[in-house]
Amino acid sequence: MTESDDSALGEQASGRHAGATGAARSVTPVTKGTAKKGVAKRATAAKTPAAAKKAAARKPESRVALVRRARRIDRELAEVYPYAHPELDFDDPFQLLVATVLSAQTTDLRVNQTTPALFAAYPTPEAMAAADPEKLEELLRPTGFFRAKTRSVLGLSAALRDRFGGEVPGRLKDLVSLPGVGRKTANVVLGNAFGVPGLTVDTHFGRLVRRFGWTEQTDPEKVEAEIAGIFPKNEWTMLSHRLIFHGRRVCHSRKPACGACPIAPLCPSYGEGETDPGKAKKLLKYEMGGKPGQRLKPPADYPGEPAPGLGAR
Fold first, then answer.
1. Is residue 30 a contact partner of residue 288, using CB atoms and an 8 Å limit?
2. Is residue 181 within 8 Å of residue 175, measured between CB atoms?
3. Closest CA to 248 of 125, 98, 85
């Protein structure tokens, strides 16, 4: 794609963006250094009924235009979140696998607050497979659904011990054969522990790709297949991190911070959330809102503060 393609795409996207005036203001996330030029742009005008009708009547976006817009959004998000990373603390593939299973129906923060004691007590699959279920339940209680998670953790640990020599396998078909491990969990482990590209279709990922108009699918596997056709394979893992970061910090489920969104001119769903810049800024979370992140041990380039430990105020 050429620079002229990008310019034309930007003009088309701004025209599609209901209420956009063509002007953009800066969003200033908490960073250690000066943000790159053009990192944070957002539209400043609210939707009007006339604009909404015009948007509804616009011509369907061609496949080529959709791909160009999608890849530009990814590049913009890469500038906004150059530090995007998995938000679960882990030191090895086994820890990441267990932490990802525990993250179901809870926050990564709560998992990160729980796993230090868990891995101190049971550092290997062999040790965890031999754990007393009641003691394991007590350790996992803060993550919710702790009885079901205890069964999954015991089962996958035993399977790793008995079928894989105590090692986490690096193939999708092997990972999804483990108790409690689905395709999403497997892709998290492959992408972040083994460097094998994968798309993590969690609730944030699914919400954003539909809001961006990249797909209308709701089934995670169908979403994964459609998005995989838009982006080169070597982008899949980082694309997942960027979308999840953006979904947690700006493009929230109930009330997205549209007025503080750096990619608002490229988003056909602008106006679903708060468009007033001042009010939208108050909705920003984690380092974008000047608050601690989710990891107790964040990467060195993370611009925010570490999360507090379990029981800390």
1. yes
2. yes
3. 85
**Residues 251-291: tens digit of each pLDDT:** 999 999 999 999 999 999 999 999 999 999 999 999 999 99
Over residues 159-195, the pLDDT tens digits come to: 999 999 999 999 999 999 999 999 999 999 999 999 9
Q: What are phi and psi of 41, to 5 degrees?
A: -125, 145
- Residue 41 per-residue DSSP state: B
Annotated catalytic residue, options 41, 47, 149, 184: 184
Residue 297: active-site member = no
Q: State the residue for tokens 């602008």.
A: 270
**How many angstroms separate the CA atoms of 43 and 301, rounded?**
28
The helix, strand and coil proportions of the chain, stated in percent and rounded to the nearest 5, come to 50, 0, 45
Residue 41 annotated to the active site: no
Among the options 37, 202, 233, 276, which is catalytic?
Answer: 202
pLDDT tens digits, residue range 102-125? 999 999 999 999 999 999 999 999
